[in-house]
Amino acid sequence: MLTLRAGQVTSPQLEAAVPKVPSPESKERSKVGNETAAPTHAQEDDMKKRQNVLERTLWTFIMIGGFITLLLLGHAYMILLVMLCQTLVYREVTALFSLKSAESKDANKPDLKGKDPWSKTLNWYFFAVTNYFLYGESIIYYFKHVVFADAQLLPFATNHRMISFMLYIIGFMGFVMSLKRGYLKQQFGLFCWVHMSLLIIVFSSHFIVNNILEGLIWFWVPASLVICNDCFAYIWGKLFGRTPLIALSPKKTVEGFVGAFWSTLIFGVIWGTLFMRWDYMICPVHDLGANAFASISCKPNPVFVWRTIELWRPIASALSTMIGKSITTVSYAPYQLHLLTLSGFASLVAPFGGFFASGFKRAFNIKDFGHSIPGHGGMTDRMDCQFLMGVFTYVYYTSLIRQSHVTVGSILQTIVSGLDVSQQLELIADLTRYLEKQGITVPR
C-alpha cells in the first residue's frame, strides 16, 4: 500500500490536476516587468520624433544654405532652381491620379498605368510644351535686344507662338489616339487633371521666373516673407495657441495666425529695406551670366529712391521731446509701403495655399505629397504658399510698380517684324545722317 506524504507528488497526472497558484513574488515580478516594457515603446516613439526633428532641422539649414548660394551665383541659377521645384511638384501631383477602369471595380481588371502612353509620356509632353511656350515668351520679352539681333534666333522669335500651338496640337492628337474603351472616363479625368496642374504649377512658376528677371528682390523678399510667416505662426501657436483656426489644419490656431501677421509686417519692412540698398537685388536682368560679385549698376526704380517728408508740427514736437533732439522730417522709400502690402498678403492670404494643399491631401488620404525633401515631405508641401505669393507679386508689380518705357529691344522688335529690308536700310541711312549732323561719328 502506498502512502502520500504532505507536499509530495507521486505522478504527473496529479501534478497536472493540481492548479498552480502564482506566488506573491511572481505576481510582483510580472507587474514590474510590464511596467518596464511600457516605457520601451514610448522611448522608441520619442527617439523617432527626435530623429525626425534633427533630420528636419538639418535639411532646413541645407536648403537655406543652398538657396543663398544660388542667389549669389546669379539669376540663371535661381531660374534653374524654380524649374527644378516646379518639375518635382508636377511629378508629385500628377502621380496621385492612377488610371484604372471607370466602368468596373473588378480587382482582376488590369491597371492601365504604365501601359497607356497618356499616363506617362503625354503628360510630360504637355509639361515640356507648356514650359517651351512660357519660357520662350519670357526670353523674347526680356532679351529682345539679343533675340531680334541674331539671324538664327529670329525665326524662333517671330514664329514662337505658332510653333508652340502646333506642338500642343500634336499632343492633343496623341491623347485622342490613346483613348481606350472601358477607360474613357478616367482618361478624360486625367486629361483635365494634368491641364489644371499645368495651370496652377507651371504658369505660377512662369510668373515667379519673371519676378527674378525683373529684379531678384521681387523673388527673394516675397519668398522670405512666406517662410517668416510660417515660422512665426508656429512659434506664436506653440506659445499662446488655444483657438483652432480652420478644420483642414487642426494645428493652426487663431493666436498663431494673428501673431504671425504682426511679426511678418515688422520683419518685412526691415528685411526689404536691407536688400533694397543692393543694386544686384533691384536691377532687372540684362546679362544672365552676372552674379553677386560682378559690378552691376542701373537706374533704380523710383520706389527704391529715398524721399523726405515734413512731419506735422505736434508730432515733430512730441518725437523731439521723446528722443531729445530736434526731428522735423522723416526719410522713407515708397518700397517700404509696398512691403506692408506684400507682408499683409503673405500673412493673410498666402497661408490659404497651405490650407488648400491640406484639403488636397485629406482628399487623397495622404500625409505628404512625396519624399523629395527628407524630414519635410514632398516639394509640394514646401511650395504650396510660394506659388500663390509669386503670382500675386508679379501681378502687383506689373500693375502698380513696373515702369513702361521704350527700350532698344522693343524698337528693334518693331523694326524687324514691321519693316521690310528696303525700309530697314532707309531707316539706317536716315539715322546715320541724323547722328552725323549731331557731330557723332558713326562707324562704317
TrEMBL record:
Q: Where in the cell is it found?
A: Membrane
Q: So what does this thing catalyse?
A: a 1,2-diacyl-sn-glycero-3-phosphate + CTP + H(+) = a CDP-1,2-diacyl-sn-glycerol + diphosphate
GO MF terms, alphabetically ordered: phosphatidate cytidylyltransferase activity
Region of interest called Disordered, as start-end residue ranges on this chain: 1-47
The regions listed as transmembrane in this protein's record are: 58-84, 122-142, 162-179, 188-209, 215-236, 257-278, 335-357
Q: What is its main location?
A: membrane
Biological process terms from the Gene Ontology for this record are: CDP-diacylglycerol biosynthetic process
Q: In which pathway does it act?
A: Phospholipid metabolism; CDP-diacylglycerol biosynthesis; CDP-diacylglycerol from sn-glycerol 3-phosphate: step 3/3; Lipid metabolism
The terms describing its cellular component in GO are: endoplasmic reticulum membrane
Q: Does the record bear Transmembrane in its keywords? A: yes
Provide this UniProt record's keywords sorted from A to Z: Lipid biosynthesis, Lipid metabolism, Membrane, Nucleotidyltransferase, Phospholipid biosynthesis, Phospholipid metabolism, Transferase, Transmembrane, Transmembrane helix
The EC category is transferase
Domain of life the protein comes from: Eukaryota
| Pfam families documented for this protein | CTP_transf_1
Provide the E.C. number(s) assigned to this enzyme. 2.7.7.41
Family recorded in the similarity comment: Belongs to the CDS family.
Q: What is this protein called?
A: Phosphatidate cytidylyltransferase
Query: Where does this protein come from, organism-wise?
Result: Coprinellus micaceus
